[in-house]
């Protein structure tokens, strides 16, 4: 597994040499600030995922059934209801078309 080489503190404390035609120091600092925000976000995500792993390991060790997250279950149920509804609508449209166009064909 790859290791993290820099921390936000390392990035914050990094100094660059100023040359005659060097980079704009403010632009570099702004960019490094954005990188530091990303690092903080990654660290938060990693911490959250490690907590989730620990919780799931503890749950598996206790022999409890895994509980599906509420968000995913709700999404799946909504998609199933929507697809059933769409199927019902298509079936009704098909019946209507048969009624309307079937009568027109017979009349002609």
TrEMBL record:
List GO terms (cellular component aspect). cytoplasm
**Which InterPro entries does this one have?**
Cell_cycle_GpsB, DivIVA_domain, DivIVA_fam
Q: Which domain of life is it from?
A: Bacteria
Q: List the keywords (alphabetical).
A: Cell cycle, Cell division, Cell shape, Coiled coil, Cytoplasm
Major place of localization? Answer: cytoplasm
Where does the record place a coiled coil? 32-59
Keyword check for rRNA processing, yes or no: no
The GO annotation for biological process reads: cell division; regulation of cell shape
Cited Pfam families: DivIVA
Localization, per the record, is:
Cytoplasm
Q: Which family does it belong to?
A: Belongs to the GpsB family.
What is this protein's function? Divisome component that associates with the complex late in its assembly, after the Z-ring is formed, and is dependent on DivIC and PBP2B for its recruitment to the divisome. Together with EzrA, is a key component of the system that regulates PBP1 localization during cell cycle progression. Its main role could be the removal of PBP1 from the cell pole after pole maturation is completed. Also contributes to the recruitment of PBP1 to the division complex. Not essential for septum formation.
Fill in the subunit field for this protein: Forms polymers through the coiled coil domains. Interacts with PBP1, MreC and EzrA.
The protein, known as: Cell cycle protein GpsB
Q: Which gene encodes it?
A: gpsB
């Amino acid at each position: 597994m790859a290791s993290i080489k820099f921390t936000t503190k390392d990035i914050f404390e990094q100094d660059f040499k100023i040359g005659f035609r060097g980079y704009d120091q403010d632009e570099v600092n702004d960019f490094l600030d954005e990188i530091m925000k990303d690092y903080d976000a990654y660290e938060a995500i990693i911490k959250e995922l490690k907590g989730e792993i620990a919780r799931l390991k503890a749950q598996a060790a206790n022999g409890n059934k895994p509980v599906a997250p509420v968000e995913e279950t709700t999404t799946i149920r909504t998609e199933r209801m929507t697809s059933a509804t769409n199927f019902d609508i298509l079936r009704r449209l098909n019946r209507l078309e048969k009624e309307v166009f079937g009568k027109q064909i017979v009349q002609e």
